[in-house]
Amino acid sequence: MALKIVKGSIDRMFDKNLQDLVRGIRNHKEDEAKYISTCIDEIKQELKQDNIAVKANAVCKLTYLQMLGYDVSWAAFNIVEVMSSSKFTYKRIGYLAASQCFHEGTDVIMLTTNQIRKDLSSPNQYDTGVALTGLSCFVTPDLARDLANDIMTLMSHTKPYIRKKAVLIMYKVFLKYPESLRPAFPRLKEKLEDPDPGVQSAAVNVICELARRNPKNYLSLAPLFFKLMTSSTNNWVLIKIIKLFGALTPLEPRLGKKLIEPLTNLIHSTSAMSLLYECVNTVIAVLISLSSGMPNHSASIQLCVQKLRILIEDSDQNLKYLGLLAMSKILKTHPKSVQSHKDLILQCLDDKDESIRLRALDLLYGMVSKKNLMEIVKKLMLHVDKAEGTTYRDELLTKIIDICSQSNYQYITNFEWYISILVELTRLEGTRHGHLIASQMLDVAIRVKAIRGFAVAQMATLLDNAHLLTGNTQRNGICEVLYAAAWICGEFSEHLEDPMQTLEAMLRPKVATLPGHIQAVYVQNAAKLFATVLRKHEGETDSQAAQETSQLLIDRLPLFVQSANLEVQERASCILQLVKYIQKLQQKNVEVAEEVTALFAGELNPVAPKAQKKVPIPDGLDLDAWINEPPSESESEDEKPKVVFAKEEPKHSRSRHTEVDEKELARRREARKQEQANNPFYIKASPSSQKVYDAPGVEHIPVVQIDLSVPLKVPGMPMSDQYLKLEEERRQKEKAERKKKEKKKKREKRGKERKADSGPESEEDITPAHQVDIVTEEMPENALPSDDDDKDPNDPHKALDIDLDNLLSGSSSRPLADSEKLPVRTHRPEVLKSPVVDRDSESIPQETKKKGGKEKKEKKKDKEKDRKRSKEDKKKKKKHKEVEEELLESQPEEAVQSEETKEVAAPPTSTSAEASDLDFWLSSAPVPPAAQEVTAPSSAAAVDTSSAAAPESEPDDPKDTEPEDMKSSKHKKKKQKKEKEEKEKKKKKRHHHHHHHGDAGGEDSVQNGTVEEEEEEPLPPMSNYSLLAENSYIKMMKEDADQVYDIQGNHQDESKVVVSVIFENKSDSFLKSMEFNVLDSLNSKLQRPEGAGPHDGLTVPFQLPPGVSNEARFVFSVQSIVMPQKLKGTLTFIVKSDESSTHEKLDFKLHFTCTSYLITTPCYSDAYAKLLESGDLKGSSLRLEGINMPFHHLLARICFHHHFSVVERIDSCASMYSRSIQGHHVCLLVKTSDQTVSIDAKCDEPSLLGNVLDEIKQTFSKC
Amino acid sequence: MSVYSFQTEDTEQQIIRETFHLVSKRDENVFVETLDKCFENVCELDLIFHMDKVHNILAEMVMGGMVLETNMSEIITQVEAQGKMEKSEAGIAGAPARAVSAVKNMNLPEMPKNINIGDISIKVPNLPSFK
C-alpha cells in the first residue's frame, strides 16, 4: 500500500508544482501569455484526474495565476472539491484559493455551506481556523445567516486560537447579516474581557469597527473601554480604543475631560509613533469638542503640536504626512499654536513627495494672517519658479489664489500687491489656470473700487505686452488673462493714462490669433475705449486726434469682421458701422462723445456665484408644469432647431440620475443649451463674465488716496517683492508712530507699567494700506440656504445602526423577540418571524430559546431560577463596579468628590441602566463642576449636560411659598427660565438620548413607528422635571424617577429608585453644607451610607455659588411598587455671604408615582400578542373626554410621561407596552374618536395598573 | 489580501514595498519580521516562489482585512504548528516530492545579492536556500 502511494507520488513529482510554474513564467518573459496558456491547459488536465493531491497542486497554481490577473472562476467547483478534502494540507490550499477567487456572484458558494459548517466544528483547531479565515473573505449574506449561530458558538470555544478568529469574523457576519448583531452582541461584549489578549484584541477590533460607524450606540461601553485603555499594553488595541474615543467624544463632551489625562500620559510615555499619532488625534478631537467650554487647554495643545512637530521632522514620509494632517485639524481651532511652526510647514514645501507638499499647502491656507500673508505668498512664488511638473505648479498657483482670496480677501492689506502677484503669475508657462487668474483680476477690479486705477494701468501694460503671453502656442491657457485685461481696460477706461495707446494695442493684427471669446471682448472694449478717447478730445478745437481714432478703428476692424467666430464677426461689424457713422458726424463737426459714451453707461455689480440658483420659487409656481400642452414626441423631433452653422452633439455630461424628473430636466436643459449654442443671436455667458447689467445710478466711489509710488513695470519683472518691502517699511513706520503714542501715554500714566511692543504685532494692529471697499456680491432676497448633505445610501454600516444598550443582560432589558434570534441549523432556515420554530415555547417576550442566548436572562414565571441568575449577575456587576472604583481612585483629584457622589448616588451598576451608569461614570469627571461653571457659564451646558437638561417646570406646578417681596426677583427668574426652556427645546432631542434613555427609547419607537408619517405638527416640548420646592435661596427640581434599577440589595423583593434633584442657587450668597434628608416610610427608604443612622441626612456633594445649579442623585429602596408613595423631607444648608452665614432649611415632599416604577421597554408585536394571549393579565379601562390633541401627541405624552413604548399603531388605535422595575407587564390599547380616548389596559398587578391609569388621567386633565 | 490581486513580477518589488509600508505603519513591521523568521532571512524571491506560504502567514496576522494577531511569537507558533501538520500528513509519500523540489530549487535564477525592502536591508546568502 505504502509503496503504491510512493509510486503515485513519484509519478506526480515531475508534474509542475507552484515553484516550477513561477520559475517557468520568469523564464518566459517574452512569451509569457503563451506559456501561461499552456500551463492552464495542463492544469485543466490535472483537474480532471481523480487524485486529490494532483487537484490540490493544480488549484494552488491557479491561485497564483489568479493573482497575476487571469480568470480562474471556471475552476470554482474544483476549488470546492479541494476544500472538502479531509487532509489539512489540501483543505488549506482549497480555502486559500476560495478566499482569492470567490465573490458574491460565485454560485458554487451555495454548495459550501455544509462543508464549512463541518470544518467549523472539526476537532482539529486548524481546520476550523482555516475555514474561518477563508469564510472571512468570501462570506455572503446567505452564508452569514446560515453560519452565524455556529460562529457564535465558536466565540466561546475552549481554544483562544478559535475564539479570536470567531470573534473577528463576526464583524463580517454583521455586515452581511445585520440581524445577527443584537443576538450576538452580549457575547461579543463579554469577549472584551477575555483572558486571552488575542481574543480581547479581536473583540476590541470588532466593536471599535462597529462603533466607528455608529458611535452613539456604543457610548455606554465607554467605561469598559476606558478601563482597557488604561490597562492594556497592546499598542494595536490601544490605537483602536483611542480611535473609538475620538469618535465618541463629540457625542459626549464629559468623556473628553476624562480622557485628556490618560491620553497625555500616553503621549508622553509611548515610543510608538502610530500610537502617538492616534493619541494626538483623539486629544485634538476632545479639544475640539470642548473648545467652547474649556478655554485653558493650551498645555495639551502645545504638547500635541510639539509631538506633531517630531512626526513632521521624521524622515519617514508617512509620519510626515500624518503629522501634517493632524496639524491641519488643530489649525481649525487653535490657529495660533500652528502658526508658530510656520517655518517647518514651509520646509515641507521642499519635500520630494508631492502629497506632502500638497498637505503643507493646505496647512498654509489656514495659517495665513494679515501679518504673514505677503511673506507666505512670497515663499510660494519662489516655489512656483522652482517647481517641476505643471501639475504641482498649477496646484501652487491655485493655492496662492485660494489663500489670497479666502474669506472675501480678508487677509489682503494691500491690493496693489495682490494685483502685482496676479500679473506675475501670468508669466507661468503652460498653466491651465489662466481663467482663474483672469477671474481674480476681474473680481478684484470690480469689487475693490479703490484699486481700479492701479489695476487698469497694470492691465494696459499686459495688453501692450500681449505678445509675451501669446508668443508661444503652448501657453494658450494663460491668454485667458487678456480677456480680463481687455475688459478691465475698457470698462474702467476713465483711469487710463493713455487710452489711445491701449486702443492701438487691442487692435493689433496679432489679436486675431487669440481665441474667439477673447477677441470678442477685445472688440467690444475697443469700442468702450473709443468712447473714452472721443470724450477726452471733445471740446478741443483740433479734432484731428479724435478723427484719427475713428480712422484707426475703421482700418483695423475689418480684420475682425472677417473672423470665423460669429460673436467677433457680429460685434465687429456692428461697431464698424457705428464708427463709420460717427466718422461722418465728426467730419460735420458734430459733438458725438456724449452719445457714444451713453452706449456704455452704467455700473456693474458683482453677483454671487450661486445667486441664480438661490432665487426662491414663488408660491404657486410649479416649474415642472407645462405652460402649454406638451407637444407630442414626434413634433418635438421635427421642431428641433436646424443646425446651420455648427454641429454640436448634445453632451450628456451630467450624471444620469435614476429619477425621471431629473433626467427630464437634464434633457430639457441640454436641449436648451443646444438651441442656444446654435442660435447665433444668443449671447453666451463665458465662465468669468457672469455679470448682470443693472443701472442703479452711479454709486458714490469712495475717495481714496492711492499710493502709486511703485513704478509700473513691464510684466516679467517681479514687483510684488517691492510691495513686501514697502509694506514692511510702512508697518515699521506705523509701529514707530504707535510707539510714540504709547510713550506719550506712558508718560501720562506713569504709574501703570505697560509692555509696549514687547510682543509681536497682533492682527488688529495692522491697518490696510488703503481703505478698500470690497463690494459684497449680490444675492437675491430670501435666498435659500444651500443644503447639500448627502449620505451614501449604500453604506452597509447603515444597517448596523442598532440600539444595543437595553439589550445587555438584565431583567429590564428589551427582550430579544423571536424574530431576532439567530437561525439555528435547520434544513431551510427562516429569516423572519418563525412561528414554527417557537410554537412549543412559552409565550413570554423575555424568552430566548436558543442555546446561544444561554447567558441572557430569562425572566420566566419560574422565579427561583431568576433569583439564582440574578445572583450571578450581581457577581459580575460587582466585578464591574470594583473596576470602576479603581478607575475613580486612579484619579486623585476627583477622588474625594467622587467618593461622596458615590455615597449619595451610587447607582447600582446594573447593565440594564447602562446609560445612567455612563452618566454617573462621566459625572465624576475631574473638574469640579461648581468652579467650572463660574468661570465659564456659557459652557456649563456643554460641560455638564445632566445639569444642562435645564430645569423646566410644568406650567401648573409651583405652589407659591415665597414672600411677597421676592416676587420681583421671581419675575426675573421666569424670564431666564423661558430662555432656558427655549434652549432646552433645541437641546432636548440631542441630550435626551443619553440621559433619559428609557424615554428616548420610547420617543424613538413613536417616531420610528407610524407616527412619523404625520409630520404636520411637531411635538410640543415636554419635560420630566418638576418643581420640588423652593424658597428665596434655593430651588429644587425633581426629575421623574425614571432611572430605576432593579433588584440589587440583599432583600430580594426590594427595588431601587434613583431620584435626580437639581439644586439651583437663587440667591446672591454662597450655599454650602447642604444636607438632604427624608423621613423614611415602611415601604420606601433613602439609601444611606453604611454606618449612618436611619435618620441621618445625606451631604450633597457640592456647594453652590450664586446663580449656579447642579444635580445630585439619591437612591431610594422601595419594597412595594403597586402604590404611589409620598415622603416628607428637608434640605438644610448654610447661606454664606460676605458678612454672615446663616443656617436655613427647606421642606419638600417627594412623590413617587407608580409611573416612576415603569421602565420604557420596547416590545415586538409578536411577543406582545403572546403576552396578551397568555391570560395572566387582568384588565381595566379608562375613558378620557375632551382630549383635544393629535393622536400622535397623545401617544408621545404617554410615552414620555409614563414610560411606555408604542408596539403597533393602526390609524387611531395603538398598542403600548411598559414594564415595571419588578417585572410587571403593563399593556395598553389606546383608541381615540372625537375627542374621546379610551384606554383598555392589562397588567398582572391590578392595583399597580389602577394607579398608573389614574396618573395617566391626571396627566391629561392638566392639558 | 486583495493587495496581491493583480501583481506581476515587475511590480512585485514595488508591491512588497507598499505592503511593507502599509503594514509597518500599523504593526511596526510585524509582517516583515515574521516573514523574516519564517523564511529564515526572507528575500524577495522567497515571497514570489512561496506565495502560498506567505498567504498562510498573512492569514494568521490579518483576517478578512482586519488585524487578527500582532504578537509575533504567537503567529510563528501557529504557523509552525500548521507546517508540522502538513509534514506529518505528507509523511512518507511526501518525501520524494520534497527531494525533487529541493533539487529544482538548487538553481534559482538571478538570485540578487542584496535586497532592500523598506528600511530593512536583507543580506542574501550566497547559497540558495534548501527548503
UniProtKB/TrEMBL annotation, chain B:
Q: Give me the Gene Ontology terms describing cellular component.
A: endomembrane system
GO biological process assignments: protein transport
Name the domain of life.
Answer: Eukaryota
Any idea where this protein resides?
Answer: Endomembrane system
Query: What keywords is this UniProt entry annotated with?
Result: Membrane, Protein transport, Transport
Which stretches make up the AP complex mu/sigma subunit domain? 29-85
Membrane topology label:
Peripheral membrane protein
Report the sequence similarity comment from the record: Belongs to the adaptor complexes small subunit family.
Query: What's the protein here called?
Result: AP complex mu/sigma subunit domain-containing protein
Give the organism, scientific name: Onychostoma macrolepis
Q: What is the lineage of its organism?
A: Eukaryota, Metazoa, Chordata, Craniata, Vertebrata
